Amino acid sequence: MSITKHKTDFIKTIQAFVLRDFSPNFDRLSSQFRPDPKWNRLREIGTALWLDTGNIEATLENWTREFSALTVNNTLLNREIQSGVYDDLIPEAFKLLKQEGCEGEQEFKLELAFILNAIHGLKLIEKFDAFVSLEEHTDLAYDLEGSLGYARRYYAICPERVYVKIPFTPAGVLASRRLSKENVPINLTLGFSARQNYVTARLANPAYLNVFLGRLNSFTEKNGLGTGEYVGEKATLASQAAVARLRQHGKTVSQQIAASVRSGQQIVDLAGVDVITMPPKAAKQFAEMEIGIDEIQDRRAHEYAPGIKADADQEKLGFDTLWRVDEKIVACMDDLDNENVDSFTPEDLVGFFSEHGCGDVFVEWDESQKQTSYEEGKIPKLGNWQEALTSGSIGLDSLMNLAGLSSFKADQDEMDEHVFKIIDEHK
């Protein structure tokens, strides 16, 4: 049997395993959930409503007829795995993988993560008839071919409802470009600025792209640069405007997601953005707010003043990169349109941006920088990065992207550790 034939059979067997108990209810569940006038007002304005959780109980508490999707990431899936809900499934999946010729710890790790993501996502689809964004293993963030392969497999389990989440990295953006051409709906995640999303929309044309606005506010506040209020909101609305202009000119179909929402008030402040994905806590706060329907207005044209101290050098720290798409970025993308991008490697993409004076967008992080970020968690410590930010070798948006990926990796590592612990206990 050829290697290609073996791999095809292997993929089919794993797909059958994850689908064995799946019983979809496409377009039959809406009437089971109550309508809500405030959520409906947001829908009338033009905002799609998603919940950012993988927890069924939390979803049931907040889901109304106006919601359409759920986003699950490495952190949220890890919470479900740590609860023990899949402890009986894990040894069964491992046994199947072993029987089918899976070899090496890395392959087992990726396949087990795929199985758990897929089965949990299908459970959410079945329960809520929701579109569900499933995120790839963090080890694939810099692996173009690996990212392509697993994305196609995620989509194949339920093309009616699955979106695939891929992070903003050189490999991730190139993978998203190819997948979008194959009509695989990509939610390109871990975006933090208007310029990142401008690049992504033109280069990869994913179905969805993001600004993780709450983390921008937290970075500002935790590093003593100001209150942090409205930093992320300003970046989100700037990105929304940039992406909308590209749509108007037929250069993308991408929709803007406001992600990392922390409160009900932020939902009000971002009304009109293409999509808001919110954790259950923020959804509950909005639902309980004493606010009239007519007070919920389209805020896309609003100018928020970011809570940054007057003595903080915004330009040197790179805050301007969050909401400004400068001429250099536009010229870089215009030149890229003349290249055979489909032949690019991730290294080619990094080199191209560097040669065009935009090397702070796609940064070639060294191992020391990655380790520092991993130890910091989701919010970078300014003291570790101020020199690089001031020199322009990295952008604030690219730093936040690295931090986001690092925090997801930490949770992915914790999940993998739990999975192999359960396997060892059943040997």
UniProtKB/TrEMBL annotation:
It comes from the Bacteria. Keywords: Schiff base, Transferase. The keyword S-adenosyl-L-methionine does not apply. One of its GO terms (biological process) is carbohydrate metabolic process. GO terms for molecular function: transaldolase activity. The keyword Transferase applies. Its EC number is 2.2.1.2. This is Transaldolase B. It comes from Anaerohalosphaera lusitana.
